Amino acid sequence: MTAQAHTTSYYAASANEKQLRPALNDNIEADVCVIGAGFTGLSSALHLAKAGFKVVVLEADRIAFGASGRNGGQIVHSYSRDIDFIHQHYGKETGSAMASMAFEGGEIIRGLVDEFNIQCDLKDGGIFAACNDKQMRELESKKALWQANGHRKLELLSETEIQQHIGTGRYKGGLLDKSGGHFHPMNLALGEAAAIESLGGRIFEDSAVTSIDQQAITRVNTARGSVTAKYVVVAGNAYLNGLLPKLEQKAMPCGTQVIATEPLSPALQQQLLPKDQCVEDCNYLLDYFRLSGDGRLIYGGGVTYGAREPGKIESLIRPKMLKTFPMLKDTKVDFAWTGNFLLTLMRLPQFGRIGNNIFYAQGYSGHGITSTHLAGRVIAEALQGQAERFDVFAGLPQYPFPGGRTFRIPYTAMGAWYYTLRDKLGI
What we know:
Layout: H1 10-13, E1 27-35, H2 39-50, E2 55-58, E3 74-75, H3 83-90, H4 92-99, H5 104-116, E4 123-130, H6 133-148, E5 154-157, H7 159-162, E6 173-182, H8 185-198, E7 202-204, E8 209-213, E9 218-222, E10 226-234, H9 245-248, E11 251-261, H10 266-272, E12 278-281, E13 287-291, E14 297-304, H11 310-324, E15 333-344, E16 350-354, E17 358-362, H12 368-383, H13 388-394, H14 404-425
Parallel strand pairs: 1-2, 1-10, 2-7, 4-12, 10-17
Antiparallel strand pairs: 3-6, 4-6, 5-6, 8-9, 9-10, 11-14, 11-15, 12-13, 13-14, 16-17
Helix pairs in contact: 2-8, 2-12, 3-4, 5-12
């Protein structure tokens, strides 16, 4: 077996290092075997290695092969469902516990970047942009909600003020989160992998897990080797590929598409995003964009099911980009790519245990950058005997999508169409 090359992304082309780590070709032992070298797996392994655990990470393809190496690269706080939804549906105790963790993921990222000197073009500032008056009212409520839960670095932007941050007249206003930000996600993942290895952890690529023999000491098998471990962390998210069918039935892979332009002139960069902050709009199927470290506009949006060819991705996303920035009509697109994230029915992460020694975290529903890093910390806490925070997430119900595998996609697409129509009508 040979590991797949990374997708046709700007991130893969500009990765700080492209060396393929070896495949597992032996039977080895560890305290913890982590399955998957995306942000959940890397954060778990890094926090565990810092705590003194002997850690092995098995990756079927390449480090950050999935959503962790393909996303918009934006630090966005809270969860795909915000704190008020959690309070309403799961009660005050659960809501308060999750609120206390809602802004931690970004702090973890910045802490790791500083501690291990990770070069990933990290920049400060993120904007939620309102496309209509209804969304602006919702941002006013979000600001009050987040401030009530201790997050203070927020500023409402009027229709005039937002144009000082984004060079378009498309938006009615916005909410600036000064503790938000953006970065090169693959280089963050590679930096975290190097940090794990500096602490004695081992990472094997091209090492898909074929089966798990669960006992008091569990064996994780690949085609050419195995890892015997006290604990296993399953962090495959949308890329488990049939390893644990019962776990995979709880969520649905969805695709998002991203393009990156050619490098823009400094004057054009200043015209588009004069303060170099990242942006996402407030639509159900949202657009998101930012400048890369070398001055490209990275623009993504929408949700589809299944992969698309790069040419089709550009034809889907370029019109969205030009609606926001018509001055880019003659600008070349150098990269176009897609990748899968994992959507849950309630749009909240799914944490849990299989038996006593297999832990899993998945289903961040498009809000994964900060939540995955939080997941790694709370998993590490649980393996050290402090499972209170892990159990807050594990206590959330994990409902399957209605209609099973046959009908879950059309049902979900119908729901997305409904909310997209509401966005267009501003209701």
